[in-house]
Specification:
With 468 residues, the chain is an alpha+beta fold. The chain has 15 helices and 20 strands. Strands 1-12-6-9 form a four-stranded mixed beta sheet. The protein has a four-stranded antiparallel beta sheet with strand order 8-7-10-11.
Amino acid sequence: MQTSEGKGTSLASGRLPDPYRVRPGDTLSSIARRTGVSIATLQRWNGLRDPHKIRVGQVLYLSEASAFGVSFVFLDALRHPIANLPYRLEVDGRTVVGKTGPQGQIPTQVTQAAQSKVELWIQDAHSQWQKLVSTVSGYGHKLITLVSGAIVVPTTLEAVSGQAIQALSKQREITATATTQAKPPVKPSGAPSKNNPAVTTKTGKGPQGMPTIVIGVDLPQTLMDHFKHFKGGDITAKDWEGVADLLECEPEVLQAIAKVESGGRSAFWRLMDGQGGHVPALLYERHYFSRLTGGRYDQDHPDISWPTGYRLRKQLGKEDKKMHDGRVDDDDIYASYATSYLRLLNAYRLDPDAALQSCSWGKFQIMGANHGLCGEPSLKKFVNKMCTSEVAQLGLLAGFIQNKPAAWKDPKNKALGREISLWDAVKAKNWRVIAFYYNGRAYETNQYHLKLERAYEAYKKANEAKKA
């Protein structure tokens, strides 16, 4: 299993919110008077050596539960609760035994101090306890979400060995089985899971022969309805030239954008190993989903909802304070289109519109949140067009280029009286400005402008050779 830790509860103590953020004029003694809690107790709950040293903006915990609470939640590979899982907690010399609740939760435990050790065990089918977590309480209510890397749980048909449980919890980096595969989700088979009817299950054999439950992803029908619009057909030279004439630019500029954004490959692949329809290539962006949903899913689903976007694979394992657990895990990196689809599915079950807007779609990787700029006020119709053909995607690109608001000024030419729009840049082959609009202010770090220019030159050379 994979763990993610988050801070934060909203308990009330006296007239102040708990936790409480120190404001100008606050002292520890004034906070103690307002809450009815002694200064010594506040010091212990917050690890304060000097009661005279608190700073504006500092977070203080005003109750023992807020200071030393520890909560656990168990989720399956699709982030749905795992209920009725036997567990054992060892905290401060006491043992708590029970089963997870309907939301996969374990009752919050309040430790005696920040240094208190907390150990969590789960029971396999042979009544053997397997340790999953060993941590310290720390300061602040700690939420530990345990996400199953694969559905491997006790069943009524076959016993699950202790070895199977160990395989499940062995590495922190394990992610949902479907996300590590290089191909799209397989058509589900088996009976609906008691945990979640959207997930079907059947028994099978896993590594080293241990019995497992195999999961299948049941795609939401409303999402499948979008995929039914596929008509296919590659973009022809005439198509490229037609849109280029509309935009008053060279077709090779548009081809270069496609090359850098999607590798110039087909913008569609087959769903369900050839058994289903075609789906457009996409990349899911969790920081968009977090912003569009007001961050309400950040704590429980940081892999698909977090204020900071995904990192590059080369950063895997590195410390990063902007990540939910302080380091870059598998769930924090950009991955394949197949992984992006699993992320989209998980987000879609939480908020369909926000999920669709949080993807960059098709050959030109246009964010769903920009559907209005593409000349399509309806998000539903935008996605339908993205699912139709590459030609339809090219038409949406034209609208995006024409309507993208100007927001770039040349830092080397401050005398320039107006901002340069994306359309201006496309006409003039201004690679830096195009790169800025497509890749943000970090475009130079990613050498995005150079990639665009090289792609343009390659297409220009190839197209001229065809005409010769």
